[in-house]
Amino acid sequence: MEQTEIIEPIQETMEEMYVNMGPQHPSTHGVLRLMLKLDGEVVTEVTPYIGYLHRCHEKIGENRIYTQVIPYTDRLDYLASMYNNFGYVLAVERLMGLQVPERAEYMRVILAEMQRIASHLIWMGTFGLDLGNFTIFMYCFREREKILDLFESVSGQRLNYSFYRIGGMPLDLPDSFLTDCKAFLEWFKPRLPEYDAVMTDNIIFQKRVQGIGKLDQKTAIDYAISGPMLRGSGIKWDLRRNDPYSIYDRFEFEIPVGSASDVWDRYMVRRLEMAESVKIVEQALRDLPPGEIMGKVPKKLKPPAGDIYSRVESPRGELGFYIASDGSEKPYRYKVRSPAFVNLSVLPVIGPGHLVADMVAILGSIDIVLGEVDR
Amino acid sequence: MEKTLERFYAAFAALGIPWIVPQLILMLVVASLVILFISVSVMFMIWWERKISAHIQVRYGPMRVGGWHGWAQSIADGIKLLIKEDVIPAGADKLVFALAPMIVFAAALAAYVIIPFGPNLIVRDLNIGVLFYISISSLTVVGIIMAGWSSNNKYSVLGALRSAAQAVSYEVPLVVSILGVIMTVGSLSMIQIVEAQQRIWFVIPQFAGFLIYLTAALAECNRLPFDIPEAESELVAGFHVEYSGMRFAIFFLAEYANMFTVAAIATTLFLGGWHGPLLPPWLWFLIKTYFIIFVMMWLRWTLARLRVDQLMNLGWKVLLPLAFLNMGITGLVLVLLG
Amino acid sequence: MTPDEIIHAVRSQFGEAIKASEVKGVEARVDVDRGKSYEILLALKGMGLDYLNCISSVDRIASGELEAVYNLSSLNEPAKAMVRVRVPREDPVIQSAVAIWNAANWHEREAYDLMGIRFDGHPDLRRILTSEDWVGHPLRKDYQDERLVPYEPA
Amino acid sequence: MTVIQVVFFLVAAFTTGAALLVVLAKNIVHCAIALVFTFFGVAALYVLLDAEFLAAVQVLLYVGGITILLLFAIMLTSRISARGVKIMNEQVGVSAVVVFAIFALMAIASLKGLAVVGSPPPASYATASLGRLLLTTYVLPFEAVSILLLAAMVGAIILARREREKD
Questions:
Q1: Is residue C151 scored above 50 in pLDDT?
Q2: DSSP for D5-72?
Q3: What percent of chain D has pLDDT over 90?
Q4: Which of residues 88-107 of D touch A (CB under 8 A)?
Q5: Would you state the pLDDT for residue D52?
Q6: Cα–Cα distance measured from residue A10 to residue D80, given in angstroms and rounded to the nearest whole number
Q7: Which end of chain C has the lower number of beta carbons within 10 A, N or C?
Q8: Three-state DSSP state, B57
Q9: What's the rounded Cα separation, in Å, for the pair C115 and C142?
Q10: Which residues of chain D lie closer than 8 angstroms to A1, CB-CB?
């Protein structure tokens, strides 16, 4: 009997294989680990494991005075630092009831929308890399460099600006900024059709992203998805329009939405949003009033006891800050509701049933930044 | 040429040395020449690819090593790879792991036997010509599977399986697409195929075949948009993810050598081989071959990657029927024209 | 629904379970009893607040309690709600809201991981941000770690 | 000994060695890889016999097709490749007798110079003449084999499909 047991009878179904995608993997955009359960090449189960970049950002925040938290927010979504600053200072201002001067508001919007363009550019480039299109990456980085140059001329920094202050802005725009920024926008607008030529209109690219990673509206709301992902599912929801903060209610812009709820729609939403951001910046540059840039702010910031949940529309979605104050100089509790964290949580739902190659595209379409997911 | 050879043999015969010795020497010389050509050509191609991709992507690419536009970059990279530590993963099957790059390279090398660089510049004008290339190139797949399996890494196994599936699927349209040319010439011999194109290049009557061949050839070379076996964003690097240093260099060398072979065969079958005015034949041949290589590079840096099921669909449901159609029409025309 | 209407509706339905309520702008804020938190959240969802923005956890160490803060809003109207639930530190258990919103899944895991609030009925209550073998809940005010250097402003 | 003979013995030794490895190797993947070398050696023997076309087809089909399929099957069932394979079983005696009988038959046949195939081989194995023969003199057996293969292929597809539908 022993001799006939050469090979154990093989199961009729094919064995399932577990593959770790990450934490070191070129498509996880950082240190994210996805446990994939594969049946052949088809993913049957996705389990994200996060926290590799966890630094207990919120605990750090509790141990700093309100102003000192600003540089730490830079490191959340390091591709959109301006927006993190924006969201944080807005939350503190709302908690304290501070007024921000007109000029500072316009500056905030200009920088924030430029940041949105830069962030979407990085996303577009890396998404191209995920799908094997290397050239778009370089194109996008070329434009982003120019935006970073502008930011450098304003804040002296290229990535972590720490440029917003509670109650206003620390420095006025340099003299050359207006002309430089306008020149950039003029230069940037014809670049968008160029991306279309390389990416959007390419039939291979279209076939790769259409019809995969479908996220229906019900699931999207159930998982509290926000930002371009939500709009890709056809829900016209943009906090800049629906819960206006700062001076966004003064600008005219479209909210692009998708219809098929797939990766392609998310791509198109971001692609079109860049053009809308250009519009907003142009209007803001046109209307930029002269005047003060820093409001009346007490020397020692002591918000009254109480708590607030304040949200802004970051390039990735709803960036919320929950701040509980006990009346002291430091936040009693400071919590970040990061859009990428929440958006990533839907991956186990939209991932399974696709090939590994599609997983890469779907993950790319979520647009995660691990600094923000892990906090 | 013939006379020099005869004198060469006679010199040895006069010394009483058996006939096999000069023949072996001759074989070694030819083989060394081919390897030398491959190495130089691959180095040039790698540098070229980097320059082309750079200029497509609005950058400069290598600019420092060697002075003029970084021409020596590939040499420096090659030396770096050669002096790197030879790493064999702990769980790997050592023998198979070591054998795999050799097989892949041997297959790439063997294909050069039938490339007609000029009227007399061919290692051996085999009777079976094109068929030899097709059969020998299937060895590459064995090498890739060996590499993927022996690395003891799931990503490399996946890459190897994808690669095998891809190569086997695309070999069929590849073979069928060149049948039109072979039917027209009535021979498999590379020399005869080139000579048949003295008046008109086959790319004109066989345009469909040319396109199908080029597409299938891209897939055979695992290049974008068909680089699924290596897809770095999915499989990290596919079957050679565990290879480094010298062994990796051999895979790399074989990959580019294959690219040259594929382009050279396209030149022979469709672009009239060495025919062309003014310039010497070998130069014409190289110009045409490098032009096809340039097209392949151009595509690589412009297109996105296909998905694995789309790749299979394209091969079986589009290319193969088209190739058969092309073959049928060619046959019909040949019969009607007598 | 306006925030006043929301508070009125919740109060009339749950009465005693609502400990305090407040209106701030378009936001209705209610402090609720933990025994009824699940039902109240479900009722709020029924009122159109179908979007769970965030679950935050706060360590109210002075009163020996932990607090979970639910922020709800709607994608159709400007109304918002903030629901606060306090639980004693010795027994920090709240009924999980995953059955109402899947969005609660990761938020609750985070609150469990960093603050140590346990959510009853959560399908997969594991640590999410810290490693699996981590000891303690770092965001609690009394969390001690020898590697943690207290910050002293100059 | 002529050069051809030397080469022949080298190739024969290589082929036999690889063939032995196919049956004796403990790891089934090694067996499959050895099979590649065996087929390749056989192809080399064909070349020595001036049957270049046959050699090319041998490599194309057996090396490029059949062994790849084998390796595929082995790798997709990971449990086989991981464990060793027992080489001997209780049928060793029987198979030894059968193998020896076949070997003896073939040895006698080749020593006596018996032509196993009826007619003497044509003078030229050139591909063109081979093709012409296949479509003239031997067209009937050629087509019959084609239909047989087609039937087998259709059958295989139907079997595979039916199994999938069961899942």
A1: yes
A2: HHHHHHHHHHHHHHHHHHHH-SSHHHHHHHHHHHHHHHHHHHHHTT-HHHHHHHIIIIIIIIHHHHHH
A3: 13
A4: 88-90
A5: 77
A6: 9
A7: C
A8: coil
A9: 11
A10: none
Nearest to B306 among A41, A198, A204 (CB): A204
Neighbours of B7 (CB within 10 A): 9
Task: Provide the pLDDT confidence category of residue D150 given band limits of 50, 70 and 90.
Answer: very high
Write the CB contacts of B284 (distance below 8 Å, at least 6 apart in sequence).
B274, B275, B276
pLDDT tens digits, one per residue of A311-358: 898 898 889 999 998 888 888 888 999 898 998 888 888 888 888 888
Please, which residues 275-314 of chain B have a Cβ atom closer than 8 Å to chain A?
301-310
Work out whether the CA dihedral B261, B263, B267, B269 comes out positive or negative. Answer: positive
Residue A150 near residue A107, CB atoms below 8 Å? no
Q: What is the mean pLDDT of chain A?
A: 85
Mapping DSSP onto H, E and C, the string for B7-26 reads HHHHHHHHCCCCCHHHHHHH
The answer to whether residues A93 and A166 touch, using CB atoms and an 8 Å cutoff, is yes
- Is the distance from CB of D59 to CB of D78 less than 8 angstroms? no
How confident is the model at residue A7, as a pLDDT? 42
In order, the DSSP letters of B182-220 are: HHHHT---HHHHHHTTSSS-TTTTTHHHHHHHHHHHHHH
What is the Cβ-side half-sphere exposure of residue D126, based on CA atoms within 13 angstroms?
Answer: 10
pTM of the predicted protein model: 0.79
Structure tokens at D79: 């449990």
Rounded Cα distance between D15 and D21, Å, is 10
CA dihedral A119, A124, A126, A131 (to 10 degrees): 160
In order, the DSSP letters of D64-87 are IIIHHHHHHHHHHSHHHHHS----
- Statement: residue C29 has pLDDT above 70: yes
How far is the C-alpha of A222 from the C-alpha of A309, rounded, in Å? Answer: 20
Can you tell me the distance from the alpha carbon of C4 to that of C6, in angstroms, rounded to the nearest whole number? 5
In angstroms, the CA A66 to CA A203 distance is 50
Tens of pLDDT, residue by residue over B305-316, are 887 788 888 888
Residue B187 with chain D: CB contacts under 8 Å: 128
* Average per-residue pLDDT for chain B: 82
Query: pLDDT by residue (tens digit) across D103-140?
Result: 898 888 877 765 545 454 555 556 777 778 888 888 89
pLDDT digit string (tens) for A252-278?
A: 888 888 888 888 988 999 989 998 999
pLDDT at res. D162: 65
Unique residue bearing structure tokens 């097209």 = B295
Q: Which amino acid is at B243?
A: Y
Residues of A in CB contact (< 8 Å) with C are 50-51, 54, 56, 58-59, 62-65, 219, 221-224, 235, 237, 242-243, 307, 309, 311, 318, 320, 322, 324, 332-333, 335, 337, 341-342, 345-346, 349, 374-375
Strand order in the sheet with A317-325: A306-314, A317-325, A333-337
Q: Is A217 exposed, middle or buried (0-12, 13-18, 19+ CB in 10 A)?
A: middle
